[in-house]
Every structure is written in structure tokens, then in C-alpha cells.
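Let's inspect a concrete specimen:
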Amino acid sequence: MELNAPVPVLAIDAELLWRIGVAAVLGPLLGLDREIRGHAAGLRTHGLICVSAAAMGIAVIALYLQFDRGGATRMDPLRIFEATGAFVGFLGAGLIVFARGKLHNLTTAAHLWLTAVIGVACGTGLWPLVAVCTVASVAMLTVLAFIEGDWSRDRRIGMPPKEKP
């Protein structure tokens, strides 16, 4: 059996540490809102998904560059997105539940998907995409939850009416 040449451990460099490190910091940061609100997927789940997606992105690029010497090999590095989407879709489907006439964990499932995309972006070094998606994610989860407050139909169902002053 012919295998690709192994990459020595000494090949760990600052760029590799930076890409995985950013994913390791941003993943749990993205899960902070879910953790605070007591949802199923919190700090650890978001962190692991983000780092895993970053590692997958790095591995795909490295293998592509290793095998595609002179353009003779036909490889499709975009399959990493297919695999990531399928995996996170599987996790998200397991999180979503229908109970007492309401759907639960839709936001958490969608957020896991965004966390995986941010992880792939960290792994592939697309820093503008990482920055914009992280800011947008944190803003949507925190700011919109605050703004949503009393306006949300889901929050009003089953709650006693407000007292008028």
C-alpha cells in the first residue's frame, strides 16, 4: 500500500498554531451564549466543533498541496465543506426536539453550523471571514436576544400577562 509521505512533528509552526489557536478561542466564545442560557451545546461542544473543522480545513489544504504536484492529480478540496455540513447537520438534527407544541434548540443547531464554518475558515486562513462571521454571530445571539425580549411570540406563550402600572 502506498501512503503519502508523513509530515514530521517538527513541522509544527506558528501559522499552524495560530489557525488552531484562533479556532480554540473563538469556538468556546461562540458557545458562551448557549452555555449561559443552559442549552445542550455550550462551550465545549462549540469549541470542539470549531477546532475540528479548523483541523479538517488544514488537513485538506495540506493533502491537496502534497498530492497535487504539477496539476496531475485531480482532487476536490471543497469536499471538506460537504463533510462538515453533513456532520454538523447530523448533530443539529439530534439537538432539535419538538416538545409541548414547540420546537427547541433550532438556534443552537444553526449556531453549531456557523461555528463549523468559522472553524473551516480558521483552518484555511480566511481571516476576514473569521472576523466578520464571529462578530455577526455574537451580535445575533446577544444583541438580538436582548432586543427580542418581550416581542418574541415563543417567550409570550405560557407567560402570565404583564401588569400595567
The helical segments are 14-36, 43-67, 79-95, 106-124, 127-148, 153-156. The chain is about 65% helix and 5% strand. The longest helix spans residues 43-67.
